[in-house]
Amino acid sequence: MTEQAPRADKAPKWLKPTTEYGPLAVFFLAYYLQKDLLVATGGLMAATAVSLVLSLVTIKKVPMMPLITAIIVGVFGGLTLLLNDETFIKLKPTIVQALFAVILLGGLAFGKALLKPVMGSAWPMSETGWRRLTLHFGLFFAAMAVLNEVVWRTQSEEFWVNFKVFGLMGLTFLFVLTQIPLMNRYALPEEAKDRSEG
Questions:
Q1: What secondary structure letter does DSSP report for 187?
Q2: What confidence tens digit (pLDDT) does each residue in 56-97 have?
Q3: Which of 2, 87, 90, 132 is surrounded by the fewest CB atoms within 10 Å?
Q4: Which residues contact 75 (CB under 8 A, 6 or more apart)?
């Protein structure tokens, strides 16, 4: 009898933080060890590839969002190294954040709250709640895209590296905290949660 691969929802607890934050940690360490954004970009690309392989080996699939991010890292990181131009890797956060904003706000334009399929099982809410939360996240990602453009175009390279590693993550964490009252306000009653899970 062959051993079945673990399902994505049964993945080891270490997998998600390792694959999400591992490449960022490699980028940060490589930059500060060499003070060279091109070296850090190469490290980011290699670590991103390793994270995809790790997901594939562990849960026999690659989640969609890490795959999209990896493709963007590959394209913009590759252009950075090929053309010896750091502009492209600095544009990568702008493109990722803008893409998320377009997907979420575009979904709302067609009547779809696209955060619900991603977060619905963890936090059941009414349709109104999902629409509002999706709008807030869409606007937040758009603001982060603009902010990254302002930072890399006006600040030093080292400042931008710190902003990319700590600033974007910290602002995202703070933003999520500000959305907890909304999620509590529109959370389904306990019995509705039970029905949605059944």
A1: B
A2: 888 888 877 778 888 999 999 999 999 999 999 999 999 999
A3: 2
A4: none
Nearest-5° angle of CA 121, CA 124, CA 127?
120
pLDDT digits (tens, 9 = 90+) for 12-47: 888 888 888 899 999 999 999 999 999 999 999 999
Residue 68 is encoded by which pair of tokens? 């999209």
**Spatial separation of the C-alpha atoms in residues 61 and 130, rounded to whole Å:** 27
Among residues 68, 83, 98, which one ends one of the domains?
A: 83
| DSSP class of 125 | B
Residue pointed to by tokens 């893409």: 99
Distance between CA 168 and CA 165 in Å, rounded? 7
Q: Which two tokens stand for residue 64?
A: 């969609």
Q: Which two tokens stand for residue 28?
A: 């940060």
Residues 114 and 192 grouped into a single domain = yes
Same domain? For 95 and 124 the reply is yes
Is residue 170 included in any domain, yes or no? yes
Contact 130, 120 (CB under 8 A): yes
135: Cα separation from own chain's centroid? 17
